[in-house]
Design a protein that fits this description.
Helix content: over 70%
Oligomer: single chain
Membrane topology: Multi-pass membrane protein
Protein name: Dolichyl-phosphate-mannose-protein mannosyltransferase
Keywords: Endoplasmic reticulum, Glycosyltransferase, GPI-anchor biosynthesis, Membrane, Transferase, Transmembrane, Transmembrane helix
Order of helices and strands: HHHEEHHHHHHHHHEHHHEHHH
Structural class: mainly alpha
Strand order of the largest sheet: 1-2
Main location: endoplasmic reticulum
Strand content: under 5%
Distance between the termini: 36 Å
Shape: globular
Radius of gyration: 20 Å
Number of helices: 18
Mean pLDDT: 93
Number of domains: 1
Subcellular location: Endoplasmic reticulum membrane
Length: 370
């Protein structure tokens, strides 16, 4: 079996087992697994947009108004295409899109790992991504797999000098989620460094790719702003009314202080541990002198997760597209596997147990927004 196929098979096996554990937990609690996978939390908003377009708003109080304009259009658009071309329901179409995107993302992650550190590290990178504590999200009707698919292949295109592909894929990533901006930032930062290094003597492909990169994210933000009567600030007002805004981490620090002094549900301490681990892994990524586009992409995702207030429990999900953070772990796992194979097996087994159990807990038991 080719190395890429092996990595993809391991990833698919990990996610399949995770889904089976979730299904068993759901059945034990009298719940329907497919409904949980396809119609949980934000999935309902995406399905509504796919079926009826934008226009749904929920009013809770004057300072809390949830509008579907907070959700970017690419994923519901793909669901609409699938339901139009097939007999699938919205939930099934959402799962099909998400699962396909997760496989495409795994291939892109493998390609980056293989280019930088060889096939063994690439396989370990894909497996680790599939066994993150929040990797159950990759099996839900959510947008993270779509964003990660476009992000991985855009970053690979940057690493290989394919600027038109890099810019186009970054634009599509920007239409997937608000933090898709991180992909455009990586393309623009790398392009700027290339222009500086070559003293402006670069091809038109680089300029075009750099110009395309922020179009998806910026276009949707401006469209929402125009619709709301404030072209530059309308989208950010929509997010503010959801309780999400960038406050340089003040809201996150207040929530962490609350956790440390009063405690809370298991989801929140676990979130704090995951975010702290991400910060440590980013420091290791810098120490390893990872390529600039990977540093910028992961750094911007981490900055958005740390600096944004609201929905503290969602921060690990926001970091799922930051797969380069796992490169130091993947390299360490490969070294361990070569020196002490059973130690590596125990590490992967422990990660798998945590991922499967915590994923089932999140979706079936926790009753916490994902």
């Amino acid at each position: 079996m080719p190395p890429l196929a092996q990595a993809l098979a391991l990833f698919a096996t990990a996610r399949l087992v995770g889904v089976l554990v979730l299904a068993g937990t759901a059945w034990a609690g009298g719940k329907r697994p497919l409904a949980l996978l396809g119609r949980s939390w934000d999935s309902l908003w995406y399905l509504g947009i796919a079926a009826h377009g934008y226009g749904r708003t929920q009013y809770f109080r004057t300072t809390v108004v949830h509008s579907d304009l907070a959700f970017f259009p690419l994923y519901p658009g793909l669901i609409r295409v699938v339901t139009t071309l097939t007999a699938l329901s919205g939930g099934a179409a959402g799962l099909l899109v998400a699962w396909t995107a997760a496989a495409v993302a795994a291939c892109g992650i493998y390609a980056i790992g293989a280019r930088l550190h060889g096939r063994a590290v690439a396989t370990a990178l894909v497996v680790l991504w599939g066994l993150l504590p929040h990797s159950i999200v990759l099996s839900l009707a959510y947008t993270e797999p779509v964003l990660t698919a476009f992000a991985a292949w855009s970053l690979y295109a940057v690493l290989t000098g394919r600027w038109l592909w890099a810019g186009t894929l970054a634009a599509l990533a920007g239409m997937s989620r608000p933090n898709g901006l991180a992909v455009a930032a990586a393309v623009l930062a790398t392009a700027a460094c290339e222009v500086w290094r070559r003293r402006g003597r670069v091809s038109h492909r680089l300029w075009t790719g750099a110009a395309l990169a922020p179009v998806g994210w910026g276009g949707y933000v401006l469209w929402v702003g125009r619709r709301e009567g404030d072209p530059l600030g309308g989208y950010f007002e929509v997010q503010r009314l959801w309780g999400s805004r960038f406050d340089f981490g003040a809201g996150s620090l207040r929530f962490v202080r609350h956790l440390l002094t009063h405690g809370d549900r298991f989801v929140f301490p676990m979130t704090m541990v995951v975010v702290a681990a991400a910060m440590l892994l980013y420091a290791l990524l810098i120490a390893d002198r990872a390529p600039l586009p990977l540093l910028v992409h992961s750094g911007v995702l981490l900055l958005i997760a740390l600096g944004g207030s609201g929905f503290f429990e969602c921060k690990p999900r926001f970091l799922l597209p930051a797969f380069p953070l796992l490169l130091p772990l993947a390299r360490a796992l490969v070294r361990t596997a070569r020196a002490r194979p059973w130690h590596a097996v125990l590490v992967v087994g422990a990660l798998a147990g945590l991922s499967f159990a915590y994923g089932a807990y999140l979706v079936v038991i926790a009753h916490t927004p994902l």
